[in-house]
Amino acid sequence: MVFTSHAPIASRLNIIATGKALPEQIITSDELDRRLGKPAGYVERRSGILRRHHATHDASQAALAAAALHDACRSHAIDPASIDLLISASAIAVQALPCSAVHVMKAAGLPAGTAGFDVNSSCVSFITAMQVASALLTSGSYRRIAIVAADIASRGIDWQHEESSLIFGDGAACAIVEAGNGRAGILAMKSETYPQGSELCEIRAGGTRKNPRAGMDESDFLFHMQGKALFRQASALIDGFWQRLLEAAGLTLNDIATVVPHQASHLSLEHMRKRLKVRPEALVDIYRLHGNQVAASVPTALHEAFITGRVNPGEPVMLVGTAAGLTLAGMVLLP
C-alpha cells in the first residue's frame, strides 16, 4: 500500500531494531485451573489466555530488560556500546532509588558514562518514552537510544482477586531508535490523563504514600483493580481519543496498516475489533500467549509486528493503549 495523504512528520524517529525476552517459566491456564481449584477450562474462558510467562521469585527485572536489549542488538548486529542513551520505560521500578535505568545498564554491561533515565506512565510508558526519544534525537542530543520496558507483574498479583489475578504475564521488550531520514518518523502523538480514575488501578506502596513510617499493610504492595469501572471509563473515552489522534495524523483508520495496542485484556481487544472497527488483519494481538505484560505489552507486540512482516516502509503504524491514571496514549508512526 502507498499512502500519500498524511500530515508532515512531526518528529524524526527510525526504529532500527527490536527485541524481547521472556522468563523461562510458562504458566498455562490449565495449570492455574488446578492450582486455584477451578473446573477445567475455567481460567482460559475467564481470562482469554492460553499461557503466560511468570518469573521465579528470585529473578531480576533488570536482567530481563538487559536480555531484551541484547536480543535487539544481536539480531540486528548492533554493538551495545554504540547506544548513547538508555530509557527504562517500565511501569514498576526495580527499587525506589536509584532509577531502573541504572540497574538495566549495569545488568546489560553498557559502558560507564552512558546516559540513562526512567520514563513512567504505567502501561503506556513505552509510547511516552518514544516521544521523549524522538525529541532528543531531533534536537541532536543523542544519536542512538535504546528504550527498554520490563515488568514482572506476577510479583504483584493478589490471588484472592480473581478479576485481575488471571490476566498478567511477565516479560521485557526493547526498541533501538535513531533520528529518521525525513521519511520515517512520528506523524502524531497524543496523551490524555483523567485523574478521577486514579484509584481504579493502583499499587499503593512503593513510594511515600504507604511505607513503614506512614503506615502500610502487606496488601498495599499488591495490584488492585476495579476492572468493570475501569473498563467503563476507558471505553467511554477511547472512541473520541482515537478520532483526535487520527485527525492529528491526517489519516483515517483505514489508512493505518498496523495497530499495536496495549494487551490489556481480551475485552479491550474485542472492543477494538467491534466498536472501533479495527480490521482483524491490522490488529496485533499477542494476548492469548503473553497476557497483560503491563508496560512491556506495547513493545512486545511491536516486536511481533516487526518479525512477522507487519511493519513496512511508508505504511502507518499506530501504537495505542490505556493505563492507570487513567491515561490514554497513542502514536502514529511512519516506518
Overview of the molecule:
- The protein has 335 residues and is of the alpha+beta class.
- It is 31% helix and 21% strand.
- The chain contains 10 helices and 14 strands.
- It has helices at 29-35, 42-47, 61-75, 100-108, 125-139, 162-165, 227-249, 266-274, 287-290, 297-307, and strands at 11-12, 14-21, 26-28, 51-53, 85-88, 115-118, 144-151, 171-178, 185-193, 201-202, 224-225, 258-261, 317-323, 327-334.
- The strands form 4 sheets. Strands 1-9-14-13-12 form a 5-stranded mixed sheet, sandwiched between helices.
- Strand 13 and strand 14 (327-334) form a beta hairpin.
- Helix 3 (61-75) crosses helix 4.
- It is globular, with a radius of gyration of 19 Å.
What is the compact description of this entry?
The protein has 335 residues and is an alpha+beta fold. 31% of the residues lie in helices and 21% in strands.
Share of β-strand residues: 15-25%
Output the radius of gyration. Answer: 19 Å
Can you tell me the residue ranges where pLDDT is under 50 for at least 5 consecutive residues? none
- Tell me about the largest β-sheet: 5 strands, mixed
Tally of separate helices? 10
Number of strands: 14
Structural class: alpha+beta
Give the end-to-end Cα distance, rounded to a whole number of Å: 13 Å
Give the SSE order as H and E letters.
EEEHHEHEHEHEHEEEEHEHHHEE
Shape summary: globular
* Mean of residue pLDDT values: 95
Helix content range of the residues, please?
25-40%
In spatial order, strands of the major sheet run 1-9-14-13-12
